[in-house]
Amino acid sequence: MSATSSQDPYQLRPEEVETPPIRFAAIFRRIGPGLILASSIVGSGELIATTVLGAENGYTLLWFIIVSCFIKIVVQNELGRYAIGTGETTLEAFNHVPGPRLGVSWVVWLWVLMISMTLMQVGGMMGGISEILHDLVPAISVAGWVWIVAAGTAVLLIVGRYSLVERVAMGLVVSFTVLTVSCAFLLFKRPEFFSWDALLGGFMFSMPQGGFVTAVAAFGITGVGATELVMYPYWCIEKGYARFTGKRDDTPAWRQRAFGWIKVMGVDVLNSMVIYTFATIAFYLLGAGILNGMGLMPQGSEMVKVLSNMYTETLGHWSLYLFLVGAFAVFYSTLFASTAAHCRMVPDFLAMLGVFDKNNYALRLRYMRISVVFLLFVPAVYFMFLKAPVLMVKIGGVAQALMLPVIGFVAVWLRYRHMPRQILPKGWLTLALWVSAAVMAVMTGYSVLMQIVG
């Protein structure tokens, strides 16, 4: 990949300004960032944290999962709006927040702390992928597969660009989501695992009966997690929404373009929400119905074997290999998409610290490639020491949950202090933003408090 400045997706150039599409079909052809986000979401959070939460609590926390999927998209939409209107990345936006600074804002340092913990989650995914590959090819050990997966992913990401990430993510998400939703529908025909009374009981706002750690992790990961909220504006920028809008000049033409591309981004947000909400509910129902009904709990080296019951109990034992292939797809989609996003954020962070000039795209690319290796090597080492995918995913989920209230209220602060006046959201969206930030704070705070008290 050439590193000429003309290819820098983070620079706003007049020649790239473009009139936004108006018709829905044309708008739908320009979506994409949300599909990458969905591929990151429909992964460890759904296949591990969501199913474990269902296995621990049965159907009683269905409401919790639905709220988790719906409540965060307002913040996601607001951060995307800010990126389109200013051309700034999420970390650049965070850096405006007042308060203690050590080179950068305290919020940016909280992001660094969160990423260091979520690399544990990435390690859990690598372990899950490697267990699957070991089942398919036992001649290579799980540890051997971990390093093969890390090396192969590094090569893909170093040579790839946005379009590759988007295509791979789309294929992986669609394949396993369709299979899992199908299994969830088949669950309705299994009275030993499903009843309508139990399903309706899932909307009674019960509190977790199992571990609060799992509930906190599930809230942090399911739907749009904290890492996805941070990464989404990067994908919007790389897709071109900010470049097509052009550099802010406060003219009526700029305002019209900005609102047009914000509308495209809004359709993208809603489309991804539909995908990951269906997938998340399906995973939860399978965990609540089959795993809870059989008294099984995914953990340790038996995680993949236990999870496979969600397929074999609905489709038959012949579907074991179908599950393995699908589980590989969903784990790998998250590993691929999350690493692709993080390797864009790390150079952004280094540029903010003054390590290099952010306008030097050649250096940005070099640091991106170095970041890919680091972001895959560290999780692999984590797994070598812990070898506990479920625990590792929970650790990453808790770290994300703790960061959610911070991101929510930063989004509110940006709306009042740094969002261009010409593209401020409507009143009902501003109200929804406040509600979203407040609910994230209350749910995270309550879950953590109950864990401490318990």
What can you tell me about this protein's structure?
This protein has 454 residues and is mainly α. 74% of the residues lie in helices and 1% in strands. Helix 7 packs across helix 8 and helix 17 (320-352) packs across helix 18 (361-386).
Compact description:
This protein has 454 residues and is mainly alpha-helical. Helices cover 74% and strands 1% of the residues.
Map the helices and strands.
Blueprint: H1 24-28, H2 33-41, H3 44-57, H4 62-71, H5 73-86, H6 90-94, E1 101-102, E2 104-105, H7 106-136, H8 142-159, H9 162-187, H10 196-201, H11 212-221, H12 226-239, H13 241-245, H14 252-294, H15 303-307, H16 309-315, H17 320-352, H18 361-386, H19 389-417, H20 427-453
Antiparallel strand pairs: 1-2
Helix pairs in contact: 2-9, 2-12, 2-14, 2-17, 3-11, 3-14, 3-19, 4-14, 5-12, 5-14, 5-19, 5-20, 7-8, 7-17, 7-18, 7-19, 8-18, 9-14, 9-16, 9-17, 11-19, 11-20, 12-17, 12-19, 17-18, 19-20
